């Protein structure tokens, strides 16, 4: 079978850092084209080229409708995807050409319908129209009838949502509605940013339309557009300040458990307040200490680890005791900053996500 002009589709995906099930690649005259809002994986290119040249053994099978399918696999990195030949890249009949044009027109119209809403949102103001269109192409339209669960408390977050139409309700375990979210607002981002389980639950109060972005694509967007990290960083800080018993007013002698306020939120409180002091941790297996000078991390030791690697390990801890003490010695105040605070936090969260995906 020749694949010089063909479309391939991803049918399985396991911890692939780039692609999702349903993503497509197009070959034309032995060249590979991938949607412009996706990064190009050189390992995938090699596998597709093997298919083009016939050097990869084919695995033909037949679907229930009798259509011949051929499967390929890309597993060169820590992830794995399987993709299949889908269809020819060119159509021989006028009817098929018209059908393809109609499908593309319908998709373009759908994107344009909520592009205007995204354009008006504060979070996306830093993106130009071209970049925002790329983001819109990654999003999928989802519709829910009234009184349906969209996010169940106690699960890992899977999507970032933008409300296009209708209203969703944020509900506690006792069925108390603590917030209602309407068009132009977002939800689902906290679990993706913090790595924690979702809480509370989110239901559709009315019929709703949502633009949904998969967790993997959400991370891709943050990596591609660092300016958006600032917005979400502020969201994390606001959440920490609102949800802790101390309402974000951290003071010398403050102590607690990481089950009540995790290390990410704790560090953000200290950073946002421009505090100078140290946080000491006690875990079952070891102890740790982190020094802050005017909100920036200047030293961190966790067991045998020091510096950035110690910070990343601390961010993954979910249980332990901590105590914050104000002030540093004159010598400690001369320690250099270990790195930009937001960059350290985002890198630590990225590593946590990768470890969770490898464990699945």
UniProtKB/TrEMBL annotation:
Main location: membrane
Pfam families recorded: cNMP_binding, DUF4388
Gene Ontology molecular-function annotations: intracellularly cyclic nucleotide-activated monoatomic cation channel activity; protein-containing complex binding
Cyclic nucleotide-binding domain location: 123-239
GO cellular component labels: membrane
Membrane topology: Multi-pass membrane protein
Stored SUPFAM superfamilies: cAMP-binding domain-like (SSF51206)
Compartments where located: Membrane
Keywords: Ion channel, Ion transport, Ligand-gated ion channel, Membrane, Transmembrane, Transmembrane helix, Transport
Domain of life: Bacteria
Protein name, per record: Cyclic nucleotide-binding domain-containing protein
Organism in which the protein naturally occurs: Candidatus Electrothrix aarhusensis
